[in-house]
Amino acid sequence: MSYVGPDFDAPEPRRPRRGPLMIAAAALVPAALLGWLVYEAVADSGGTPASATPRTGPSSAADSPADDGKLTGSPAAAGAASLKGKVVLVDPGHNPGNFRHTTEINRKVDIGTNRKECDTTGTSTNSGYTEAQFTLDVARRLRTILEQQGATVKFTQDGDRAWGPCVDERAHIGNAAHADAAISIHADGAAQGDRGFHVILPASMHQGSADTRPIVGPSRALGTRIRDGFNHVTGSPLSNYLGKGTGLVVRSDLGGLNLSTVPKVFIECGNMRDSKDAALLTSGAWRQKAAQGISEGIVSFLRG
Ligand code: ZN
Hints:
The chain is of the alpha/beta class. It has two domains: 18-52; 82-303, 3-Layer(aba) Sandwich (Aminopeptidase), CATH 3.40.630. Helix content is 43%, strand content 15%. The protein contains eleven helices and ten strands. The protein has helices spanning 6-9, 20-47, 58-67, 75-78, 102-106, 131-148, 167-176, 213-234, 255-258, 275-281, 284-302; strands at 87-92, 108-110, 115-117, 152-155, 181-188, 198-202, 206-207, 210-211, 248-251, 264-271. The strands form three sheets. Strands 4-1-5-10-6-9 form a six-stranded mixed β-sheet, sandwiched between helices. A two-stranded antiparallel sheet has the order 2-3. A hairpin with a 2-residue loop joins strand 7 (206-207) and strand 8. Helix 2 (20-47) crosses helix 3 (58-67) and helix 8 packs across helix 11 (284-302). Residues 93-94, 122, 131, 186 line the site of zinc ion.
């Protein structure tokens, strides 16, 4: 083999001084060390706190130490190839700072069918947990899950701006990113007793700067998958007050949908003003399930 050169031959003269036992012991040390390192790597990999991504099987952990010894066999890395090249636009509804910028968010913008407020403050639970806090938290959890599977995730805002963006800009960000799927995350503010979640789909329209005709079909497919994934993972019921029991509602009054040129839906994850739904929405464990459910729908859609 080419690596056996003069440099490797240099220690040769010392060999005769070693007895057979020395040589055997010298051979055993690296083997034992390697075995221990492999054991440690596998044990560490298995002991990592559970990720939101399902493990792909026992082979992933066993394979990783042999790759490069950097614990690349985590569940995240195991599924990394599946969504490579896919772009997902995640739109956390509203902005925690909107209520301090009423002038800016009340400014009217063109949503194709008409002009409408730039954005709104969103709702909150009766105890003051705001929709904007909720949407950002679920969005970040969703981003982690999707990125673990190899997707590129774009946000419309990440708590990194004082207010907004406006609904038209939220659509334009997804369009500019050429997103393969776009999801706007919200929670509703309806009456006590109104419970469950629903997914909002764009209506077909061609008016002003809005032309949703190309995205109505794929958006319905995306929305149906998200409804099923969300229902499956969270166990939350389909809305009992909108959508006639289907969990799907078609709307033509939302600029974020009207102006989209990529498949896009909204999800209203629950009713913040209902005490039972609010108990779910304020739970971090439940929000993790919500993110997982949304991701299942998106992944199902992207994989066709
Ligand atoms: Zn909202």
